[in-house]
Amino acid sequence: MEIIDKLTWICIKDRKVLFVRSRGKDSFYTPGGKREKGESDEAALCREIKEEVGVKLILESLKKVETFTAQAHGKAEGTLVQLTSYTGDFTGNLTPQSEIEELAWFNSNDKEKTSATGILVLNWLKEKNLID
């Protein structure tokens, strides 16, 4: 069994959570990505978020909240993705960067637009009464 290890940022505004869609993809994901060799979770997440949505995360505000594991979207059966999720404040304006084509704000009714891990994130946030 292969596990794809990723970091993700949970950004909530007006009881909705930020999702992104990469160019050429049909599914939305929480923003984030993989660590580079030697990077801490926080450093990797700050780098990935700057690259994807153009904002600077405030390092001191980052807080690990949950880890979600599910079948990886578009990968062979048995390939799992593990999302270590953080919340945190930011400075700047959210704007699609590099491979990101679209930003969207989701509530628990948007499950059909995301992956298995995205559904886990939406369900968890709804259970915690953080999104509608």
Please provide the ordered H/E string of secondary-structure elements: EEEEHEEEEEH
Overall mean confidence score, pLDDT: 96
Name the beta content range: 25-35%
Q: DSSP helix count?
A: 2
Largest sheet: 4 strands, mixed
Task: Identify the CATH homologous superfamily.
Answer: Nucleoside Triphosphate Pyrophosphohydrolase
Summed up, the domain count is: 1
CATH class, anyone?
Alpha Beta
Explained architecture:
The chain is α+β, with helices and mostly antiparallel strands and 132 residues long. The chain has one domain (3-127): Nucleoside Triphosphate Pyrophosphohydrolase. 19% of the residues lie in helices and 35% in strands. It is built from 2 helices and 9 strands, in the order E-E-E-E-H-E-E-E-E-E-H. The chain has helices at 41-53, 116-127; strands at 3-9, 12-13, 16-22, 32-33, 56-57, 63-71, 80-87, 90-91, 100-106. The chain has a 4-stranded mixed sheet. A hairpin with a 2-residue loop joins strand 2 and strand 3. It starts with a strand and ends in a 5-residue tail after the last helix. The model has no long low-confidence stretch (mean pLDDT 96).
